Amino acid sequence: xxxxxxxxxxxxxxxxxxxxxxxxxxxxxxxxxxxxxxxxxxxxxxxxxxxxxxxxxxxxxxxxxxxxxxxxxxxxxxxxxxxxxxxxxxxxxxxx
Length: 96
Fold this sequence. Notes:
Radius of gyration: 22 Å
Number of strands: 0
Largest sheet: none
Shape: elongated
Helix content: over 70%
């Protein structure tokens, strides 16, 4: 009996994407927190600059994640190019 080989590439790619998106969001926010706290400490202006830097980090993280998704989505659509809903419906009907 042949051992069936399971492919985990799709799962691993999805996990890598979520990891990338998480880091893309977290790193600018953390930089904003540390930079804002440092600047607030130097200027003695608690927490004004910290809040501004957190918001800027959040905006940068969202923009970075948007750009990452914008690059990935066309690639995903390219994998499914040429397949129509009727093709998918036929495959679904064959399963039952």
